[in-house]
Amino acid sequence: MVESSAKEPQRIPGPLLPQGFYDRPAVEVAPELLGAVLVHDGPEGCTCGRIVEVEAYAGPEDRAAHSWGGRRTARTEVMYGPPGRTYVFAIYGMHWCFNVVAGPGGKPEAILVRALEPLCGLELMRRRRSRPARLRGPQPEVGAAPARLNETFHCHSSPAAERLVESRRPERASRLLTAGPARLCQALGITGEAYGLPLWEPSSPLRIHRGEAPLPPGRIATGPRVGVDYAGAWRERPWRFWIRDNPFVSA
DNA sequence: TGCTTGATTGTCT
DNA sequence: GACAATCAAGCAG
Fold first, then answer.
1. Which nucleotide lies closest to A132 by the C1' atom and the CA atom?
2. How far is CA A76 from the centre of its chain?
3. Which bases of chain C are contacted by protein, using any atom under 7 A from a CB?
């Protein structure tokens, strides 16, 4: 739990995860992301949450991955670059999904972040989630300049939000703020504009801090990935990882 | 150029 | 549990 007060800025726990952290197979990095803290500084304010559920996609040989068969398109281009950047893609014509690029030696692997436990900016998350979900604008080029720079590591949160998180008994409506890949993108204000951002850079508007990561193996559950029925035998791989008994997990 | 698919979600019954 | 919404990406012709 993040210590905070209504008057003092809330400090994001732990240092930023270095770029080298992501320079490994996605299946290895994914479980170690659980407990880390995703922070987004947007034009409307700062929102952040603990990563509680992820899925690993293992590149060209993985039938479920967008880079399956070595597919290299404008959408998947960022996965062929250095690891530790964001891979944001649109799905079903109305949702965004947020991935972390991983994989050694330019291997196009990625980790889908499926759920967060909200830590700060809950009021802003609620406002965003109350708006209709709509895709906005074209996909920008890889490495495009961040929409907004923010040098600070601090984040403000409301007393009500802190009480809710501290209660460990979130209401259904609050759980649904960030339980699901598209929900968390909407709550944190992540869109195609965040495509290709460096997650290890202090000046990036989208960052991942170490937080509690890595968690002990006993706190991590595994299972098949969601929504990849088309992937044949690959759909059975237990490459979905989540924090055991965490109420903010999506499925 | 046009058709099909899709790493989802919200609403209705 | 079933189904509609909605459109970018990928692919066939």
1. B10
2. 17
3. 5-11
Structure tokens of A168?
Answer: 């460990």
Q: How far is the CA of A126 from the C1' of C2 (A)?
A: 28
Stretches where chain A sits below pLDDT 70 are: 1-12, 132-174
Protein CB footprint (7 Å) on chain B nucleotides: 5-10
Q: What is the pLDDT of residue A166?
A: 38
Cβ burial of A217 (10 Å; 0-12, 13-18, 19+) is: exposed
Determine how many CB atoms are found less than 10 A away from the CB of residue A170: 17
The pLDDT tens digits for A167-200 are: 444 445 567 889 999 999 999 999 988 999 999 9
Place of tokens 């996605």: A26
Nucleotide nearest to A186 (CA to C1'): B9
The amino acid occupying position A146 is P
Token reading at A114: 């499926």
Cα–chain center distance at A59: 18
DSSP for A42-107, written as a single string: ETTEEEEEEEEEEEEE-GGG-TTSTTGGG---TTTGGGGS-SSBEEEEEETTTEEEEEEEE-GGG-
Rounded to the nearest 10°, the torsion over CA A160, A162, A165, A167 is: -80
What percent of the residues of chain A are helix, what percent strand, and what percent coil, each to the nearest 5? 25, 25, 45
pLDDT given for residue A7 in this prediction: 38
* Residue A105 CB coordination number (10 Å): 6
Whether the predicted model's global pTM rises above the 0.90 cut: no
